Every structure is written in C-alpha cells, then in structure tokens.
Prior knowledge:
single chain, 433 residues, mainly alpha, two-stranded antiparallel ribbon, two-stranded antiparallel sheet, 4 strands, elongated, Dynamitin, Dynactin subunit 2
Amino acid sequence: MSEGTRPKYDNLPGIDTAPDIYETPELAEDVSTIQASTAVSESDGEGDDDDPRDSAVRHQRLQPDQARSRFQPARIDARGVDFSDNITAQRQSYRTSTQRQRRRGEIIGDDSDEEEESFGKKLLRIKRELAGLEAEYERGVQSGDKSKIEEQDPKEMMEIIASKVDTIYTAHKGGARGAQAILDRTVQKFESYKPFEPSPKISNAIANKPPLPGTQVQKSQLEFVLNQAAEFDKRITQMENNLGLNGNTMPDLSDHTPFPVATTLTRLEQTLSLIGDASTNNLDAVTQNVKKLTAEAEHLKEARQEAAQAGSTSGDNKAATYPDQEAKINALYGTLPSVDKLSPILPLVLERLRTLRLVHTSAWQADQVLTELESRQSTQEQEIKKWERQLEVLEKKMKTAETAMVNNVKTVGNDVKMLEEKMAKLLAGGHEE
C-alpha cells in the first residue's frame, strides 16, 4: 500500500483496523418483528385503569361522541373562498354559525352548559333561515330548476311562513308599524304620564317656614321667651340675696354704698401683699414721705385760705354773677364718689355697649337682607303664577293640536285605503280586458 492510499490515522496507536461485521439474531417462533400498533384495545385500556401500577404510560381514551357533538352543529358557508397558498388570491372571509340540534327522544351533545334561546333570538333566527331559503329558492329558479313538491309549492309555503313570522314579530315589538298605529301608541304613552307634583324640597320649606307675627305659634314663642327672662331675673335676685344686697344697700340707691365684692377683694389682696413685702427701711421711707406730703397739704390749705380771704372783698360781685356754675360744680363734686365706686365695672359696661352696638348693626343689616329676600320671593311667586297660566294655555293648545292631528291621520288613512281599493279595481279591470 502506498503512502497516498494509507489511512490518515494509521500510525496512531490503539486503532482497530479489522473490518466491521454486522450480525442479526436468529428468528424465534414466539418473537414478532411487526411494529406495535398505536391503537389501544378496550381490554388493554380497562386493564390499565384497573391496575395503573402495571405500566407507567397513561393511555387516554378518545371520546368521538363528545367531539362529534361539539362540532356537528356548526355550519360553515365557504362558497367562493380560496384556501390555497397562492399569493395572488384574494383573502375572503367565511361565515360560521352554531345552533342546537335535537332529535326525537335525545339531544345530541350535552346541553347543560348552553343558555336557553330567548323568544326574540328565536324569531330572528327563523327570519334569517327563511331569508336563506328564499335566496336558495330564487337561485334554483334562476338556474332552471322548477321542480315542485307534490303537496304544495315551496314558494307558497315560504310566503305563508313569512307572513306568520312577521305577524308574531310585529306583535312582539308592540303592534302594527303604520303611521296611524305609531301615532296612537305615542298618544297613549303621553296620556299615561302622571301630572307633575309639587317639589318635595319646596313643600318641606313651606312646612318649616317661620310663623308670621301675631299667629298662635308666635305667641307661644313669646311666652316661652318671657318665661326664660322671668327665670333669669329670679336667679339674679337669689344671687343678690346670697351676697347680702338689697334695695337699701345697692350701689345706685343707698348713700353709703359698698364697693363691689370683686374690687374689694382685689384691693384687700394688694394691701396684704404690700404689708407682707414691707421691711423696716421701706416703712421708714414711707413714713417720711407721708409726713412730707402732710406738711405740703397743710401749707397748700393755708395758702388757699389766704387767697380766699384776699379775694373775698373783690369776688363777691363775681360769685353773685355765676350762681349756676357753682351749683353745677358742686353737683359734679358730689358725683365723684359714685364715679370712683363705679370705676371698676366701667370696662365691662363699655364692652357690653360695644357688643350691643354690633348686635344692633347686624340686626339692621339682617333686616335689609330679609326685606330684599321678601321682595325677590314675591317677584318669583308672581313669575311662577304667570308660568302656570302659560302652561295651562299650552296644555290646552297641545290637546287641540293632538286631536286635530289624530283626525287628520284618520282622514288620510281612509283616503289612502279608498285609493288602494280603486287602484285594485282598476288593475283587476285591466287584467280582465
């Protein structure tokens, strides 16, 4: 063997250069060389179901009856549809419909999951099937097939069925579809409407409106307010008795009126605090100041007396000239103690006076708003009455127009029927000639 014909890996160690030998076993009588069938017999399937441990393979049975019941009711209209793979072919859709099929004494398939067909759907389905039958009949007539059923012509049978279906469909939709029938139903529908009732909100507002002055309700409310005022006055009297005040000891009535309790307690508290905080040095300084003030007061008193004596001779005429002014000044000096006693309650009185002024101002503004609202309400009432009158007139006109329209429709209907009868007679006379 030359170098060119020797194998490429001949020089490698461990290469087996012996020729390959293929041997087949000898045939035995109990061994079959036929491939096992994929069909599972009933006995094998039952054995697998009874003892699943014999085989790890799960043999699932086919149920042709269920598959047939699933796809048998389907109807496919694929006329004129090209299912080829030609790229120049125009893709066309086809229609698929499924319906329930029943046999005498049995139902094909399981209808437990299907919904019951309603009356309207049944009518529509029958009309579609009838239209398909008519189209099929027309195609048969055009193609030259003029065969008839021995009992009755199919065209006549379809016309009878179509008339019955139209009658049922019209009755289901509410009656005839003529103009007069539609008008009658519309008029009956509007006549069956209930008249408009008052608004519940307005009724509640009228029921809950405040009472007018002078009515029984207003008098009862005034009595209630007076009772509350009497009870308040009783409480004030009881409080005065507890404080030891009466008609003789009231600050505005008696000569020696006591100070208010709160003011007196405040002054006592201040005096006690001063005494408690005072020391020896402070007392000495205060004593010296008091002595100094006393000396100044006495000196001032002496100076006034001297001035009075010096001017008594020249001022007699002036004093006689202004007696009224002296009386007024004396009256003012006489009211100073009362003003001093009332000074603690002056801030509270002023605050209440300001509050009363605000209340009066708000009441005046509220009175203006109420007056404006009353005027607007009266204007609205007049407008509502005008609208009511206009609505009554409009209702009367609508009734008149409705009656006239019904009469016109009846007249036109009678004329149309008369013309139809005349046209039918003319057509019948023309055929006879």
